[in-house]
Write a structure and sequence with these properties.
Aspartate Aminotransferase, domain 2; 16 strands; 38% helix; seven-stranded mixed beta sheet; alpha/beta; binds pyridoxal-5'-phosphate; 400 residues; Aspartate Aminotransferase, domain 1; 14 helices; transaminase activity
């Protein structure tokens, strides 16, 4: 075991995945073609949402989501510091202002009480939206966030990069799946190789709102539309020097607002479709690993708190809060186990410190960071690897 490295997460590519990509490479389409719509439909069905829009990566999904919902220079969005920086940067891309809320030390998710306090403490600020993150795969209690959003007139973007297939149980005791469009205006996903479904680079936005859906389709491709009903210029102009018949010529299209090229390619979509077929099976595997870890680490010396076992958790990560975190990290590494730290609080990244945030601003997030470690969690982990991670972790605290 010692000569093999166990990473904290890794993708799984099967012969079927490879064949799906080859088939698409031999078809007529390389960039957006029929596989995009097929992937979008399959993903919408998987999440239970009305619509899905495939984009080039999760960060592009966040950027377009904020653009579509809208933010101005004097408006604010509330974010969580325990996430990947992209969940916050998207507000800055659009010229908006950021406020952070602290995390709930039990769930590691954005603390709804902290969010409400920020809103109440800042009556002079125009707060427009919230971006809860389903951190590690635990889905945010979005029905509660929705109540808050309705009360204060806010939009919600759910960053569901960690949680495809995960759910929370709402106030009526119903399961609500990540990205199902019932509570968040838009939900976003990533298909980076460490995430549940890998397309190399790739992302998705889900929604139940047809207007947002149409807007996103335009924004992902330069702000260009080919829908004749939406055209703003005259038919005469479009036709040029020939007699106008009242119809726009076939070549005609309009760029109506500033969009981007955030398209996914057809062969990536083919890979995504193939990967999505194994999503349920892989989620089961992640949950069984989480169960083994929870059983092994409950009440163990050195372990302060963990992700634990929660039914709706999608277990992108399994997090331990431990004593002597760096000691454990180095010890695991010297035994071929490459754990990772998720995340360094975003408000303490130098870019955000320069905008005024400092240590002590969000005590729960900062305490969490000081002692968190993500141990290996990926569906192709075998029993031997799981037991090796458990015994090596325990060995560190028994030795010291
Ligand atoms: C991975 C990730 C992103 C960004 O996704 P990319 O596809 O890498 O751009 C955003 N938010 C979270 C929480 C992520 O884990």
């Amino acid at each position: 075991m010692n000569n093999k490295i166990i990473p904290y997460g890794r993708q799984e590519i099967t012969p079927e995945d490879i064949q799906a990509v080859i088939d698409t490479l031999q078809s007529d389409f390389l960039t957006q073609g029929p596989k995009i719509a097929e992937f979008e439909n399959a993903f919408a069905a998987y999440t239970g949402s009305g619509y899905a829009v495939a984009v080039s990566n999760g960060t592009a999904a966040l950027h377009l989501a904020v653009m579509a919902l809208g933010i101005r220079e004097d408006e604010y969005v509330i974010c969580t510091p325990i996430t990947f920086a992209a969940s916050i940067n998207c507000v800055k891309y659009c010229g908006g202002q950021v406020l952070f809320a602290d995390i709930d030390p039990e769930t590691y998710l954005m603390d709804i009480q902290s969010v409400e306090k920020i809103i109440r403490d800042n009556p002079d600020k125009k707060i427009k939206g919230i971006i809860p993150v389903d951190f590690a795969g635990r889905v945010a209690q979005l029905d509660e966030f929705k109540k808050l959003a309705s009360k204060y007139g806010l939009w919600i973007i759910e960053d569901a990069c960690h949680s495809p297939g995960g759910f929370f149980v709402d106030g009526q005791n119903e399961k609500q799946f990540a990205g199902n469009g019932k509570f968040a205006d838009l939900s976003i996903f990533s298909f980076h190789p460490v995430k549940h479904i890998a397309t190399g680079e790739g992302g998705m936005i889900t929604t139940n709102d047809p207007d947002l859906y149409n807007r996103l389709l335009t924004l992902r491709s330069h702000g260009i539309t080919r829908n004749t009903e939406l055209f703003e210029n005259s038919v005469e102009f479009a036709v040029g020097n020939s007699p106008a018949t009242g119809e726009y010529p076939l070549w005609y299209m309009e760029m109506q607002e500033l969009g981007y090229n955030y398209r996914l390619t057809d062969f990536q979509a083919a890979l995504g479709i193939s990967q999505l077929k194994r999503a349920d099976q892989n989620l089961k595997k992640r949950k069984s690993i989480a169960k083994s870890y929870t059983n092994a680490f409950t009440g163990t010396p050195g372990i302060i708190h963990s992700s634990g076992f929660i039914e709706g958790h999608a277990y992108h990560l399994f997090v331990l809060e431990v004593e002597d975190r760096k000691g454990l990290y180095d010890f695991l590494r010297s035994h071929g186990i490459f754990a990772q730290i998720h995340y360094i609080p975003v408000h303490l990244m130098p870019y955000y410190r320069k905008q005024g945030w400092k240590e002590g601003d969000f005590p729960m997030a900062e305490r969490y960071y000081s002692r968190c470690i993500s141990i290996p969690m990926f569906p192709s982990m075998n029993e031997e690897a799981i037991n090796y991670v458990i015994s090596t972790t325990k060995l560190f605290y028994e030795r010291s």
